[in-house]
Write a structure and sequence with these properties.
Chain lengths: ~325, ~325
């Protein structure tokens, strides 16, 4: 295993510590239980927005904590759900009296633990609403999921809902908006290589030197099919067509096009993929009104990519454009 | 070779095209010769700041074109110097009458071609000054370099000099400042795995499964030594100590600490490295006044990292903090 780590069991703790040391103006890191919260704490009268999940997808979610996006994030061990006590502590830390939204990726452990945390928080008189993101069109059920998996759409939901909370919307409104984003977003990914978790030290799956996996999950869960590596333009077609088909886009729709690296795929390749994805969107009569290109929801060092398409409303565009100041996404400030 | 590309010979062209499609508000891409220029063109009375070099180090340099950093960048083929006609076209495109600064990484081809371009531009009555960046303490001469190589310090020089040009400083002042940055910045890198260039399709060098290369160059050029992989805290010591020693830091110095991924090393590992680098800096009595953590000067998909330390002045801090709006670095706008 070739990794820049110390003790495999200390990876998350040490990484989160370093993250806190690098961004003390934006975030504060708590341990036992572990959560990352905006440095200026709960905002009186503002809906709190939190998320969390297994580590190994950085910058998601911790990198999106700050102003105008997440108020807190709960990092689990690598590819392992955080525990309800982490989520409860984060929920209470960001409650400014207007309630807290939990944005939950659809993995069985995450959903179960966020449900428990929400119940505990409500017992402590914190109002909570939860929205489950399940935007991955690749497969119906999967290794850790009943129904579709939550992937790249989560990044977009966190930005848009964080901005809505900042703008003073109520918990009901922010939760409705989050459901609306989830209803209008679809994703699909692929991998050229496996990730290696620090604890196992071995590739999560095996791919031959000439193979790729289409429809891969962000923990290396199996996708739709394995096939020979094809030119990237064909690969992008294999991702974009099911995404657009499932979303049911119509000519004239405005979209946010998000081309994401799984971690090991460098920007020089990602922009070749973006070029084709943008072309396909335009061939479908869509207007690429906004875009995002880079490694935002990764799978450790996995080489591969995903595409996410969000059908935009005027409100979503305004909220996407609103100022954000986090370690991983920043504009307007 | 596992890459998301079409034709190996079209990688740079297609990637730059996609880059232009993703960021039309910030950049315009020209072909034949290829250069990337800020979308709003030459700024009357402002010093133009340009750079360039082989591709494969993205986001450097194209990702730093926009407002408050580079006015243009010239991407060569992968790991190959751009040609003088690219540099000349970029120079003339950004000349607002106050002259143009060439920020040149110290590689033989880059230095020679930028010299030729500067001569041609001066024949066309564009005043040019050139500053060569040579911040890599690992080795004295190297595969493509007489003297030290230019690496991570280049990112910092481009931000600081871009801000100085924006603030209305003269060409002499911006060039002096660039030399001052170069005098006060040192870097060193290491690799766990080789990069693979699209044209060769093979690893540039071989490393055993338990080996790492300390002092690697950004094109996979040999470093100081190969040794068994060690815990990342020890690896960071092997990089930080020569950097601080060569820079001759004194207790109380304020620094910018830049921990960079070579491409394949994910953020979860990079923040563990940052944690140790920050600790070492503090043990030396230094104040980490600013930092940068992420993949900013990469070597395709190489796994590995580099550390860069810049000794800061008040002026450099102000210029670092000044607004910047580029695809890869953005704040204050």
């Amino acid at each position: 295993m070739k990794k820049l780590i110390n003790d495999p069991d200390a990876v998350v703790r040490e990484s989160v510590e370093g993250f806190g040391m690098a961004h003390p103006d934006l975030v504060t890191v708590h341990h036992d239980p572990t959560y990352i919260v905006r440095a200026d704490g709960a905002q009186e009268g503002k809906v709190g927005v939190i998320s969390g999940g297994g580590s190994g997808h950085e910058p998601m979610h911790g990198g999106f904590v700050g102003r105008g996006m997440l108020d807190a994030a709960c990092p689990g061990e690598v590819f392992t759900s955080p525990t309800p006590d982490q989520m409860l502590a984060a929920t209470e830390a960001v409650d400014g009296g207007a309630g807290v939204l939990h944005i939950v990726k659809n993995y069985t452990g995450d959903v179960m633990n966020f449900e428990m945390a929400a119940e505990m928080a409500e017992n402590d008189d914190v109002e909570v609403q939860s929205v489950v993101i399940d935007d991955d069109v690749a497969v119906q059920d999967s290794l850790y999921t009943a129904g579709r998996r939550g992937v790249g759409g989560t990044v977009l939901a966190e930005k848009i809902c964080g901005a809505a909370a900042d703008a003073g919307h109520s918990l009901d409104e922010v939760a409705d908006l989050c459901r609306q984003v989830n209803d209008n977003v679809r994703s699909m990914g692929m991998a050229l290589t496996s990730c290696v978790t620090p604890s196992s030290g071995e590739p999560t799956f095996d791919l031959d030197e000439d193979e790729m996996e289409i429809g891969i999950g962000i923990h290396g869960e199996p996708g739709r099919e394995r096939k020979s590596i094809r030119p990237v333009d064909e690969v992008v077609e294999m991702l974009m067509e099911p995404v657009l088909d499932d979303l049911g886009t119509k000519e004239g729709d405005r979209i946010l096009l998000f081309v994401n690296s799984m971690g090991g795929t460098p920007l020089i390749e990602l922009y070749i993929a973006y070029r084709k994805a943008h072309e396909i969107a335009e061939q479908h009569g869509l207007t690429v009104a906004r875009n995002l290109v880079g490694p935002y929801i990764t799978s450790l060092e996995m080489a591969g990519m995903s595409v996410t398409v969000l059908r935009l409303t005027d409100q979503m565009i305004d909220l996407w454009d609103a100022p954000v100041h986090t370690p991983a996404l920043r504009w307007g400030v």
